[in-house]
Write a structure and sequence with these properties.
single chain; 212 residues; alpha+beta; 5-stranded mixed sheet; 3-stranded antiparallel sheet
């Protein structure tokens, strides 16, 4: 009697597996697994680390900077970049930061501090990137604004958003971008991008990814 029971259990398991794969949304869920979820805190710390390592990163309004003056604790500060592009520092008051790289800003602060400090050594590190963002809306797990990392693509942005919901149409994704004052629409097929990296789209600040 044990053999028929085993056969019945095997047949039942195969039937459940077949129904699950054929059910609406099952293939979509399988596609979701190709996109690893990324936590918010790890994304933020990763973006700051990449900005700090990128010598060409240009500081923008609302970024947060670590200004370190060696052996000068009172001058070492963590400061936000104001909407006017400036930061406030002891002795120097307002200093233009937006539009400069961290290295350029460090050089400028060093030169300005020479009036007050002997041989100042200044290091500027980007703690938070808030000036360059992309936006994800629609059928993604975590819609919202995300820091634009150097070289970031649509696939990477979708990963940051935790993948798709079960209702997402991954063949009809598109990117909205403003160019020369006009909004342009760029189609994006998730499956094609996985198979052909050249189908992926490099993102720019202000891009909006729409997942219908």
């Amino acid at each position: 009697m044990a053999i028929p029971r085993i056969l019945c259990a095997t047949v039942a398991a195969l039937a459940v597996a077949t129904i699950s794969w054929g059910a609406p949304g099952a293939q979509q869920k399988a596609a979701e697994k190709a996109i690893p979820a990324a936590g918010g805190s790890s994304t933020a710390s990763g973006s700051a680390a990449k900005a700090a390592a990128d010598p060409n990163y240009v500081i923008g309004a609302q970024d947060v900077l670590d200004i370190n003056v060696w052996k000068e604790d009172q001058l070492t500060k963590t400061v936000p970049v104001r909407p006017d592009g400036k930061i406030s520092l002891p002795l120097l008051n307002d200093v233009q930061a937006a539009g400069l790289t961290p290295t350029q800003l460090g050089t400028q602060i060093t030169e300005n501090l020479k009036k007050f400090v002997t041989d100042p050594q200044v290091t500027v590190i980007v703690r938070e990137i808030n000036s360059q963002r992309v936006y994800l809306i629609g059928e993604v797990t975590r819609a919202g604004a995300y820091p634009l990392l150097p070289g970031m693509t649509v696939l990477q942005a979708l990963s940051s958003a935790g993948g798709f919901t079960q209702f997402a149409n991954i063949k009809k994704i598109y990117v909205l971008r403003v160019e020369s004052g006009k909004q342009e629409k760029y189609p994006f097929n998730y499956k094609h991008a996985l198979e052909s990296p050249e189908q992926n789209i490099a993102l720019r600040a202000g891009d909006t990814i729409v997942v219908p």
